């Protein structure tokens, strides 16, 4: 054994330190290695350990040598292991057995300072712990303990902070032991092992554990195996990374990589790096043999890690952020002022370069933020640490973020720096000497705008507590400094108190307050209380975290003032994984001077400590108050590594009743989550974390490179944000413990969360899976309790069916035995009008009941869906009913290849309409169907049923239901719904109407039908802008414009438009210039009836406020002064007026009398359908609404050229009579159109008269009337866009008063009176 001296000189002179440019002078120190002494121990050395001033050497001959660093043994003899007694614990100290074989020696050992002893692995695989019973290190004073069950140990690693000994085993698992304080025995804490569930193909094929290394901050351990691979675990066994699965183990083409074999590894400073020497690689067995020589060389690899801030600075100043720190950058999740915070997490593997993101911040107080900002994206906000600061202060040791997530402070080797996320600027010490003179020892925390930190002042050799203001310059002149007695190890802020834990095992509480000394704002710090903990804490280094909390075992304290922020009730101390709580002692006299200064008031002492939990890695609490969510906000949350999480939940009496004295006021509930927790969102019932994600990039490299680079074997690693719901675990744990009332209170307080339905579903699903698949009978099943619990919420029906649909069929009977019969649940859905949920229950019924039952329920649902116009559901129901009938309960029927043409005559256009029930044109929204849509209607399974061989009972059954619905729609004059129904379900309307022509498809009341269509299609009733009444102009030379217009088809809002600025809303968005429909011959005919003159007076329109229709929207007030001034009186020879005038009148009237463009398209579609089906009475009604004489003419031609039922003609005639009477009394706007079609109606009368004797029926051919125009002439008018017209009956009596109307009718000329229908039939 050779001992060397190591000297180093710093090339930069020490005097340069004070100058501003001394950094440029700094460089790596020169090293000098010089041999001091050679010792011959006469056997191979197996292990070396440094123990304070000595060196402990284990040799293969079973001896332990204790050697001084000078190379002297100081006369101490080597200890033979065979003389050291071993027992199960220290209580049976001298009775221990000795190692009973001669060639025993130590294979691996490691010294544990906090346990004062050695963890050892012997060559036969046994493991143990050797400790000196007294201070002297001799064979007589040593004693060993060992666990009985470990016989395959290979290596050992010790965690001093948590007093853990990790032993690697041949099986590939790691057994982690701790020492029982009372007996000194070795207790198994937990195991680190891969599970068959996660790694099915590798979990038992890793080989023996080869190396283990705890990180410098003692928060994670890295493990590697004989056959390669790396894994990273938290202190108490949560697995963070493993390279034996996923992208680490497989290439992008799916081939398996050989795991990376590791010969040696060591952590870098602060755990940001892992240095690895890879084994003599067999990584590339597929590569050609001549390349293998290149691969033989071992490589040095460097892995970078980032870690949670709480591994090193577990201060409680911010519960709302996840903050990760790397060697030169920080990752935080407050992209939009989210809420989060972190525990003693692992480092997370990363050769990471996550993308940057913008960070707008919201000023949210300390209240919980919205979930959308929190979970809206998966990217981190990355902050590069100032390179100026890093140059002389690498590595970063601590960091902290303020409550609002807007400011970050970092601490390196010396001094500190802080950064504002709003201004994106760093602030460093102006005086570099001040920075280099302070070493932060106990972490740092934010208090409002101040940074509180515990540091050591190098010049004064003094421990200090300092407070710096963020907004002022970073300088000691602006700091508030308080001297401390001992070194501060931990620091935390709670409300307006600072709590510090010091190296002398004492806890000190300070009050902190803002002070304004003239221009400078500082913070004042005063000592409040000191608590000595030396009798409870064996070593100060073992304290992981210390914090003040408002948690107490007595909920009564907070019951009085639940709305106020709760005070500091207890100290939580994590002592090597053991959570200890000290509450304030309220047993003594409670004297409170109300007027005294709270800082001078004597604080209550603390009770002796109580152990709350074991294996604790992190603790979260909050002092926020919310009366609605007291359970979640007053709870204490613990992260326990591999054991999952625990919550110490308060139990509240309902309605503030007095709690039972025998009931506990808090309960500790364990639960498992799938992520490593870094923050708890209290109100939102969420846990946030970070996870290592991988991206493969080996495809960028070709295989025939000189070698496949080692870095290509490792995928690119990025850190992703994750989150998980935990509420269902807590509810379930409460129900298990018969605390259903508490579970209900908790669930009701969270019922507004967006994912609450998912919580109920998860709980039901997990309990069902466990109990229904259990091999043993369950004495006290939980499922009935959970089912009863869920019925308390309105989402009960959805929860049950969603759970069933996601579960195997085999478990359904068990589920519905607990929640109720699916038939009853289906009926409840129908009663609640929740059709989608009912449809889900149908699938359950179909599998659990006979077909007759499911058909009966499906029929019920189908009819309800038809009524409510749920077309998607209707299509599914049709397919479902067919499947039941054909026995294909799972697969939908196949689509036929052939289609039968439509069975009715008519336009060629409809000949190839497909007949489809099961599928729809998915792109057709329910309220939009048009002529073009029918062309591309997809064909479905029902096309087959028109053929002779497939006319099965099922199709007939479905048809009967569809026919019944169509009949109901027609009887209720719901043509729009009928059109939607036919278009959406591919219902063959034409063939059905043909059959129903004389029954359901007959118009019983034309007037009601007309009114209903006006309303359904938002079509305005026709109006007359002016009417004939007596005129003040006595000369008689003028005819009234109103009278002409009454007899023509056009009306004239344009004149009114020019008149009055006070007219109500005119929709200017219309395209005014549409094609002119009927020829001007009609206008001329109507306006050239002889020389009779009438006096004219232009009367104003009265308006009922129907402001969307243009016609009714152009009114004048009675008192208008425009009447004589600006109205143009028209000469009696109306047709000689310039053509543009009549064009304008016509166009404007067209606009006023039309509904929306969509309605027009729909009406024309229906018109074609009815025309094909021969339902002429409906065609007449639609023709009346559209007010197109060409349609009426066309119908007349059909009546003359084909055998039309005489009864239908009679019906049309009587219907038109009724419409005429209605127009005369209620809607004079229809009169002009009725007058235009007068000649056709006379022909109709003649036909019906001839048909009084049916046997003498002959079709009468009548020549076309002059007014007849091409049937298509009107259709191009549909191109202009129209606003939607509200359902209005405002057009009828509002146009003219009853007296004016009578006058107008009395003054009509003879030919019009001859043409009225009353006169034409005897």
Automatic annotation (TrEMBL):
<dbReference type="Pfam" id="PF25440">
    <property type="entry name" value="Beta-prop_RIC1_2nd"/>
</dbReference>
<dbReference type="GO" id="GO:0005085">
    <property type="term" value="F:guanyl-nucleotide exchange factor activity"/>
</dbReference>
<keyword id="KW-0472">Membrane</keyword>
<dbReference type="GO" id="GO:0000139">
    <property type="term" value="C:Golgi membrane"/>
</dbReference>
<protein>
    <recommendedName>
        <fullName>Guanine nucleotide exchange factor subunit RIC1</fullName>
    </recommendedName>
</protein>
<keyword id="KW-0963">Cytoplasm</keyword>
<keyword id="KW-0597">Phosphoprotein</keyword>
<dbReference type="InterPro" id="IPR040096">
    <property type="entry name" value="Ric1"/>
</dbReference>
<feature type="compositionally biased region" description="Basic and acidic residues">
    <location>
        <begin position="1"/>
        <end position="11"/>
    </location>
</feature>
<dbReference type="GO" id="GO:0034066">
    <property type="term" value="C:Ric1-Rgp1 guanyl-nucleotide exchange factor complex"/>
</dbReference>
<feature type="compositionally biased region" description="Acidic residues">
    <location>
        <begin position="1303"/>
        <end position="1312"/>
    </location>
</feature>
<dbReference type="Pfam" id="PF07064">
    <property type="entry name" value="RIC1"/>
</dbReference>
<keyword id="KW-0344">Guanine-nucleotide releasing factor</keyword>
<feature type="region of interest" description="Disordered">
    <location>
        <begin position="1"/>
        <end position="21"/>
    </location>
</feature>
<feature type="region of interest" description="Disordered">
    <location>
        <begin position="886"/>
        <end position="905"/>
    </location>
</feature>
<feature type="compositionally biased region" description="Polar residues">
    <location>
        <begin position="337"/>
        <end position="348"/>
    </location>
</feature>
<dbReference type="InterPro" id="IPR009771">
    <property type="entry name" value="RIC1_C"/>
</dbReference>
<comment type="similarity">
    <text>Belongs to the RIC1 family.</text>
</comment>
<comment type="function">
    <text>The RIC1-RGP1 complex acts as a guanine nucleotide exchange factor (GEF), which activates RAB6A by exchanging bound GDP for free GTP, and may thereby be required for efficient fusion of endosome-derived vesicles with the Golgi compartment. The RIC1-RGP1 complex participates in the recycling of mannose-6-phosphate receptors. Required for phosphorylation and localization of GJA1. Is a regulator of procollagen transport and secretion, and is required for correct cartilage morphogenesis and development of the craniofacial skeleton.</text>
</comment>
<feature type="region of interest" description="Disordered">
    <location>
        <begin position="337"/>
        <end position="363"/>
    </location>
</feature>
<feature type="region of interest" description="Disordered">
    <location>
        <begin position="919"/>
        <end position="948"/>
    </location>
</feature>
<dbReference type="GO" id="GO:0005829">
    <property type="term" value="C:cytosol"/>
</dbReference>
<dbReference type="InterPro" id="IPR015943">
    <property type="entry name" value="WD40/YVTN_repeat-like_dom_sf"/>
</dbReference>
<dbReference type="GO" id="GO:0042147">
    <property type="term" value="P:retrograde transport, endosome to Golgi"/>
</dbReference>
<feature type="domain" description="RIC1 C-terminal alpha solenoid region">
    <location>
        <begin position="728"/>
        <end position="886"/>
    </location>
</feature>
<comment type="subunit">
    <text>Forms a complex with RGP1; the interaction enhances RAB6A GTPase activity. Interacts (via central domain) with RGP1. Interacts with RAB6A; the interaction is direct with a preference for RAB6A-GDP. Interacts (via C-terminus domain) with RAB33B; the interaction is direct with a preference for RAB33B-GTP. Interacts with GJA1.</text>
</comment>
<feature type="compositionally biased region" description="Polar residues">
    <location>
        <begin position="929"/>
        <end position="939"/>
    </location>
</feature>
<feature type="compositionally biased region" description="Polar residues">
    <location>
        <begin position="1278"/>
        <end position="1296"/>
    </location>
</feature>
<keyword id="KW-0677">Repeat</keyword>
<feature type="region of interest" description="Disordered">
    <location>
        <begin position="1252"/>
        <end position="1322"/>
    </location>
</feature>
<keyword id="KW-0853">WD repeat</keyword>
<feature type="compositionally biased region" description="Basic and acidic residues">
    <location>
        <begin position="349"/>
        <end position="360"/>
    </location>
</feature>
<dbReference type="GO" id="GO:0006886">
    <property type="term" value="P:intracellular protein transport"/>
</dbReference>
<dbReference type="InterPro" id="IPR036322">
    <property type="entry name" value="WD40_repeat_dom_sf"/>
</dbReference>
């Amino acid at each position: 054994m050779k001992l060397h001296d190591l000297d180093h000189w710093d090339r930069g002179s020490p005097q340069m330190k004070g100058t501003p440019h001394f950094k440029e002078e700094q460089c790596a120190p020169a090293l000098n290695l010089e041999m001091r002494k050679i010792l011959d121990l006469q056997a191979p050395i197996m292990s070396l350990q440094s123990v304070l001033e000595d060196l402990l050497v284990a040799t293969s001959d079973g001896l332990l040598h204790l050697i001084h660093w000078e190379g002297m043994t100081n006369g101490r003899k080597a200890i033979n292991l065979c003389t050291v007694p071993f027992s199960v614990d220290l209580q049976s100290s001298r009775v221990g057995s000795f190692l009973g074989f001669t060639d025993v020696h130590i294979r691996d050992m490691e010294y544990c300072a906090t346990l004062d002893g050695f963890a050892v692995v012997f060559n036969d695989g046994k493991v143990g712990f050797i400790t000196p019973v007294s201070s002297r290190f001799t064979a007589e004073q040593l004693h060993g303990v060992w666990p009985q069950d470990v016989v395959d140990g290979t290596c050992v690693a010790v965690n001093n902070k948590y007093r853990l000994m990790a032993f690697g085993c041949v099986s590939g698992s790691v057994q982690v032991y701790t020492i029982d304080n009372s007996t000194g025995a070795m207790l198994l804490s937990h195991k680190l092992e891969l599970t068959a569930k996660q790694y099915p193909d590798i979990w038992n094929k890793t080989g023996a554990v080869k190396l283990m290394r705890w990180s410098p901050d003692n928060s994670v351990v890295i493990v590697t195996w004989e056959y390669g691979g790396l894994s990273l675990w938290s202190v108490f066994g949560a697995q963070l990374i493993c390279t034996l699965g996923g992208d680490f183990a497989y290439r992008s083409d799916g081939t398996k990589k050989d795991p990376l074999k590791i010969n040696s590894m060591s952590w870098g400073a602060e755990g940001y790096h892992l240095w690895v020497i890879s084994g003599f690689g067999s990584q590339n067995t597929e590569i050609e043999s001549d390349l293998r020589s290149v691969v033989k060389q071992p490589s040095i690899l460097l892995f970078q890690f980032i870690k949670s801030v709480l591994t090193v600075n577990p201060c409680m100043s911010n519960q709302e952020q996840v903050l990760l720190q790397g060697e030169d950058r920080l990752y935080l999740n407050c992209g939009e002022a989210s809420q989060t915070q972190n525990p003693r997490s692992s480092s997370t593997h990363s050769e990471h370069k996550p993308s940057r993101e913008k960070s707008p911040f919201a000023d949210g107080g300390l209240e919980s933020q919205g979930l959308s900002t929190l979970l809206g994206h998966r990217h981190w906000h990355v902050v590069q640490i100032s390179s100026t600061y890093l140059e002389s202060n690498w590595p970063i040791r601590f960091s902290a973020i303020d409550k609002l997530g807007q400011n970050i402070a970092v601490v390196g080797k010396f001094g500190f720096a802080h950064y504002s996320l709003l201004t994106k600027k760093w602030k460093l010490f102006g005086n570099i000497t001040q920075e280099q003179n302070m070493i932060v020892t106990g972490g740092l925390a934010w208090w409002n705008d101040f940074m509180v930190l515990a540091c050591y002042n190098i010049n004064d050799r003094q421990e200090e507590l300092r407070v710096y203001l963020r907004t002022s310059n970073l300088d000691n002149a602006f700091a508030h400094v308080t001297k401390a007695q001992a070194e501060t190890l931990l620091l935390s802020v709670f409300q307006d108190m600072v709590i510090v834990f010091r190296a002398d095992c004492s806890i000190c509480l300070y009050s902190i307050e803002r002070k304004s000394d003239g221009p400078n704002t500082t913070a004042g710090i005063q000592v409040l209380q000191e608590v000595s903990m030396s009798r409870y804490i064996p070593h100060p280094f073992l304290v992981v975290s210390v914090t003040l909390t408002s948690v107490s075992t007595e909920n009564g304290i907070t019951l009085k003032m639940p709305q106020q922020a709760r005070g500091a009730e207890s100290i939580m101390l994590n002592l090597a994984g053991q959570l200890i709580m000290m509450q304030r002692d309220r047993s003594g006299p409670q004297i409170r001077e109300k007027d005294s200064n709270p800082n001078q008031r004597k604080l209550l002492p603390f009770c002796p400590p109580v152990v709350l939990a074991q294996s604790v890695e992190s603790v979260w609490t909050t002092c926020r108050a919310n009366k609605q969510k007291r359970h979640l906000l007053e709870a204490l949350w613990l992260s326990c590594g591999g054991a999952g999480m625990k919550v110490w939940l308060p139990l509240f009496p309902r309605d503030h009743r007095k709690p039972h004295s025998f009931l506990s006021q808090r309960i500790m509930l364990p639960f498992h989550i799938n992520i490593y927790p870094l923050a708890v969102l209290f109100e939102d019932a969420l846990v946030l974390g970070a996870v290592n994600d991988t991206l493969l990039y080996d495809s960028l490299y070709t295989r025939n490179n000189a070698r496949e680079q080692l870095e290509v074997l490792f995928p690119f690693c990025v850190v992703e944000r994750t989150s998980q719901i935990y509420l269902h675990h807590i509810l379930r744990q409460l129900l298990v413990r018969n605390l259903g009332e508490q579970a209900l209170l908790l669930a009701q307080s969270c019922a507004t969360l967006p994912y609450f339905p998912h919580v109920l579903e998860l709980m039901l699903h997990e309990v069902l899976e466990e109990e229904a698949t259990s091999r043993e009978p369950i004495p006290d099943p939980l499922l009935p309790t959970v089912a009863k619990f869920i019925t308390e919420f309105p989402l009960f029906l959805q929860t049950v069916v969603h759970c069933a649909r996601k579960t195997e069929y085999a478990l359904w009977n068990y589920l519905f035995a607990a929640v109720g019969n699916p038939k009853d649940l289906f009926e409840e859905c129908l009663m609640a009008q929740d059709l989608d949920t009912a449809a889900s229950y149908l699938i359950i019924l179909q599998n659990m009941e006979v077909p007759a039952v499911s058909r009966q329920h499906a029929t019920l649902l189908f009819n309800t869906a038809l009524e409510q116009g749920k077309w998607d559901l209707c299509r599914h129901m049709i397919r479902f009913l067919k499947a039941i009938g054909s026995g294909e309960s799972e697969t939908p029927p196949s689509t036929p290849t052939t289609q039968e043409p439509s069975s009715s005559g008519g336009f060629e256009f409809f000949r190839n309409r497909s007949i489809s029930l099961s599928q729809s044109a998915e792109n057709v929204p329910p309220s939009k169907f048009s002529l073009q849509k029918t062309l591309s209607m997809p064909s479905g399974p029902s096309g087959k049923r028109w053929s002779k061989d497939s006319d099965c009972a099922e199709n007939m059954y479905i048809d009967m239901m569809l026919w019944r619905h169509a009949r109901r729609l027609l009887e209720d004059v719901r043509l729009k719904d009928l059109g939607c129904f036919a278009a959406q379900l591919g219902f063959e309307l034409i063939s059905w109407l043909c059959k129903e022509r004389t029954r359901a498809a007959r118009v019983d009341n034309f007037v009601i039908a007309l009114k209903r269509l006006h309303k359904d299609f938002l079509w305005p009733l026709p109006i007359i802008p002016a009417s004939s009444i007596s005129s003040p102009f006595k000369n008689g030379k003028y005819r009234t414009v109103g009278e002409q217009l009454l007899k023509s088809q056009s009306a004239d809002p344009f004149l009114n438009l020019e008149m009055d600025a006070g007219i109500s809303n005119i929709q200017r968005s219309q395209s005014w210039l549409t094609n002119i429909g009927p020829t001007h011959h009609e206008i001329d005919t109507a306006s050239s009836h002889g020389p009779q003159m009438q006096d004219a007076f232009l009367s104003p329109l009265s308006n009922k406020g129907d402001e969307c229709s243009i016609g009714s929207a152009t009114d004048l007030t009675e008192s208008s002064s425009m009447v004589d001034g600006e109205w143009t009186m028209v000469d009696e020879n109306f047709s000689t007026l310039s053509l543009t005038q009549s064009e304008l009148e016509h166009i404007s009237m067209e606009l006023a009398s039309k509904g929306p463009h969509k309605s027009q398209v729909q009406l024309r579609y229906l018109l074609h359908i009815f025309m094909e089906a021969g339902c002429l009475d409906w065609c007449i009604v639609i023709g009346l609404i559209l007010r197109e004489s060409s349609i009426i003419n066309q119908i007349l031609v059909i009546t003359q050229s084909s055998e039309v039922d005489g009864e239908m003609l009679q019906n049309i005639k009587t219907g038109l009579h009724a419409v005429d009477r209605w127009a005369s009394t209620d809607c004079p706007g229809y009169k002009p159109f009725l007058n235009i079609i007068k000649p056709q109606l006379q022909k109709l009368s003649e036909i019906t008269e001839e048909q009084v004797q049916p046997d003498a029926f002959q079709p009468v051919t009548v020549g076309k009337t002059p007014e007849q125009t091409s049937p298509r002439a009107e259709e191009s008018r549909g191109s202009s866009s129209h606003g939607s017209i509200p359902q209005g009956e405002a057009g009828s009596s509002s146009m003219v008063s009853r007296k004016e109307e009578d006058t107008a009718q009395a003054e009509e000329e003879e030919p019009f009176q001859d043409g009225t229908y009353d006169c034409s039939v005897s």
